[in-house]
Amino acid sequence: MTQYITHMTLTEVSEAISKKKLSSLEVTEACLKRMEELSDKLQSTAEINFDFARAQAKKADEDFKNGIILSALHGIPLAHKDMYYRSGRISGCGSSIRKDFVPNQTSTALRRLDHAGALDIARLNMVEFALGVTGHNDVMPTPKNPWNKKHFTGGSSSGSGVAVASRLVFGALGSDTGGSIRLPAACCGVVGMKPTSGRVSRYGAMPLSHSLDTIGPLTRTVKDNASILQAIAGRDENDPTTSNIAVPSYLNGIASGVKGIRIGVPDIYFYDHIDSEVYSLMSESLALYQKLGAEIVPVKLPISIRHTNALTIAIIASEGSALHQNWLKEKSEQYGAQTRARFLMGLMIPAVMYNQALNLRAQLLSEFTNNVFTKVDILHAPVITMPVPEYIDTHTKVDPDYLEMITRFGHCTRPVNYLGLPSLCIPCGFTSNGLPSSFQLIGKPFDEETLYRIGYAYERETNWISQHPSL
After folding, report:
1. How far apart are CA 307 and CA 207, in angstroms?
2. Strand order, beta sheet including 436-442
3. Is 81 in the active site?
């Protein structure tokens, strides 16, 4: 019974609870049991909140008994990256420095999920201070890829990707500064949304780069993902960077199909050095979209796209090191080698270079939107241009080989952060090493609605979401 429940999607279990086929407590106990059973093997959970989870579930069941249904998330167990503050609970941020940190505030994202009736049953492990794309952590447990523990989970939302793929919970929040939602989603075979900058409040979430940080969900399906983003999106007075643009109903038109939709295929950058297996999966997904009635349109990208990877890295390093400069002086030995070295490199970036990287964003976004979104509705691209690597393929110490790997690994995701655009990661098959592969749909600012519609059209014609790691 436990596996039957945990292998349902968020949408399915929500319907089962609403029809009184399952109680929230039954669902929660199934998730807690599975977490306990797989905790040592997967290393995805930093802390399981047994008492809090059961109390929330009992409260949800009492609400249902009294005819109160807050949303499709009501009574559903979720867990989140260990960087979302909840007043009175530890938020370790994947670090030794903050392993005992207890905030006195609760993040807006968690508060909005609370108001939607969702349950928060665990903290999930992550890359140290969210600075890393592979998933490796030198100072705290490194989550294991459930498809094969030798391979990258992707980072920095590593525990979120693992927990959702392993059917521990029905969804999880991550953060995406240079690809940290989409990379673990791709490596673990789940759906991940990096929203438009300003779509979701960052109040009460550990900062890394105030110019680039975004918050979004990882889930098993597109519909599940839309339900969580629906709950957390929108203006927040506690975060002045959030937008006043109204949040649409993401589920209303999600089944409208793709007939007449123009899907762009980039001519440069995103297909640089792509592996033949990954290229074949990209081509197959485009062929399916064409069969469903979409128009596949080659798109000439502005040459400036080639600079965005380096510009993103410069901004993250500069802003991250500025946040950490006091700890780097006083607690340097408590950082992992990779994290410390990358923050220290950030301190060496000249202010002129940092300001140039910021000032170019508006110009490069204008060039990109004029070249792309005047011709197509969305851009289709790989998330990772290689099969998911093994940890042994790179070094855990900072050296030229490692730096080259992390630059290449985030090659396709960082430009989206730099431009502030939304991007949805969709699983599209497996490479011969048995690991998942995915494409991303890159959209116009604040057009997450179209991304969900196009992603769902692909998902319902394939069976990738029904496949799961054998644990």
Report:
1. 24
2. 45-48, 119-124, 77-81, 171-176, 214-219, 191-194, 423-430, 436-442, 378-382, 262-266, 295-299
3. yes
Whose CA is closest to 217, among 451, 5, 26, 379?
Answer: 451
Torsion sign (Cα): 312, 43, 216, 252: positive
Total-model pTM: 0.97
Rg of the Cα atoms in the chain: 21
Average pLDDT over residues 402-431: 94
Query: What is the tens place of the pLDDT at every residue in 309-360?
Result: 999 999 999 999 999 999 999 999 999 998 999 999 999 999 999 999 999 9
Spatial distance between the Cα atoms of 97 and 342, rounded to a whole number of angstroms: 16
Residue 304 annotated in active site: no
List of residues 6+ apart from 392 with CB closer than 8 A: 150
423, 441 contact by CB (below 8 A): yes
Is 444 an annotated catalytic residue?
A: no
Of 14, 44, 156, 285, the catalytic one is 156
Of 81, 144, 194, 223, the active-site residue reads 81
Q: What's the half-sphere exposure (Cβ side, CA atoms, 13 Å) at 210?
A: 9
